[in-house]
Structures are given as C-alpha cells and as structure tokens.
Amino acid sequence: MTIAGKRLEFRIPISPSEGFFSQVRLYNYALRRLGPPYDQARLLVVVGDNCDIDSVRRENRWSEGFNVVWERVPDAIFNEFGMWGTANWRLNIPAQDAEIVFLSDADTVLLRDVNPLLADFPISEPTVRGHMAHGPPPSDGTDAPPSYTPEFWPWLFDQFNVDWPSETYNYSMDFFRALPKVPAYYNLGFVAMNAAALPIFDAQIVETARRIKTLTESHMRCQIAVTIIAHRAAMNIAALPSEYNAANDLGHLKVNGLRVDDIRVLHYLRGDEIDRSTIALPGKIAEFLTRTLRNPANSALQRLVRDYWESLR
Fold it and tell me: What is the gyration radius of the CA atoms in the chain, in angstroms?
C-alpha cells in the first residue's frame, strides 16, 4: 500500500481550557498542511475534567471543517485517575477504520511528514513504536527500588510477571550513558501503534494503571503502563529516533545529534524561552512572533506559528 493510502488517526488528551484549545488548533494546522494522508486523518481530542462536551464543541467551531472529533472522558475514569485517566482514555476508544493510531501531546506539532515510519509500519501483528523517554520515571516514596538503579525495571516487570525483553535501550537524555539500559519506555509525546495493538491496550489499561499506582506514585505512570502492556503482550516493539519526538531542549538535540531541519515531530515542552500554553492564543501570538529566540527548535516553532497566524488572516 502506498503511503498516501494509509489511514491515520492522531489522539491528543487535554483539559477544557483556552490554552489547550489553541494548541489543538495549531496541531491541526500543522497536520493538514502536510497533504495526503495527513490532510484526511482523524484528529481525536480526548477532553477530561468532567467537561461539558457540547460547550467544548461550540468553543471550537473551527474544527467543523476538518476531520476532528471531540471525545469526553467518562466521569468514573476521570474521578478515579484524574489527568492520567484523560491520557489513558485514548487507548479505550476503537480505531474505527484507522490502520495506524498516534498518541500525541498537546504541546507537539508535526514539522515534517513521518512517511518513513508509515512505509515500514507493520499492519497485521500488534505493533508499537515510540522515542525513548528522557530519563527514568520518578519513583520516590514507594517500595520500588530507585528508578535510576539497575533493579527498578526488573522489579517492576516481576510485579506484572512480564518476561525481560531481549532488546533494551538508553534513555534519550542519558548524556554519559551512566544509567542502565531499560525496556522500551516511551515518551508519550508521539507513540505509534497499529489497529491490532489498540484492543490489547484497551483491555488492560485500566487495571494496569490501578496496579501501577499501588507500586509507584510516579507522575509518569501512563508511560510505565504502555511499557508493561506492550511487553506483556509480546508486541512488535522498537524505539524511534529523536526526529520523531524532538524536545525543544538543547541537551536533547545535542545528545541525539539532531539537526533542527531533520525534526519531524517537535515536542515544545520546555518553558525556558516560551510559554507553551499561550503561543497560539490570538491575544498572545503577536508578542510571541516578535520574540528573539536562541533555541533553534523554538525558532522552528515560531516559524510554524507565523505561518499558522497568516493562514487565519
């Protein structure tokens, strides 16, 4: 099948706020401008905080001209898990006709296509791909071994009776390779899975999330849950290079040898030069576009926002 024929879906979890809405609209612009198959892809926005979904849709009438769907997180899920429930609910929604589903964060944008990933992505066997997290998940205040030690991940896998994988990886910001290699533990800013993998996550995510919470209070427990479920199901697992989830972090760019022009997916999570929640707000864009930025990844984001702003005028 050609790349243009692939059926894609992108999923973003948010709270119902003006800042998040503006980030989704920027994400949608960056996605659609890439042409087929991205211009026709389904963008599924999962909204938590016991929101009024009809009000959310009214506040985002711009989305009616695109393949954008607003999905409300059930009250029981949000009330039990909070923002982690919003993030995980993406895994409970059927894929419909999508062959490949991408988990994204609101503070990510596609600067370029991800065609090389699409071309080689398996369709039949359950498959998941992502870029390695920057470092170990916090694990303080629990019975778990410290997460920076070689004992942490084997201990966690033992708790879930998961076999240790044959392939392990470095954290993506382990500058000096001082930390042990670990199973595929992805940053959820950009994770790809096929339709065959999604029902497995759907069936296991709630109970896995509950169990992880008893083992560690880590705020990265959504990422931990994806790792546990994927390995327990013996999925086709591999790590993506940094261009598929490049942080606006000079250290991340340097340690991964990544040039800005090579970035496919930009994750603008660092706030030293920008406020990620305001850069796409109509009342804040003009100020952002006049700002002098030293980080080349932030400058690339600024160029995208300029194009986006021009498209609305």
Answer: 19
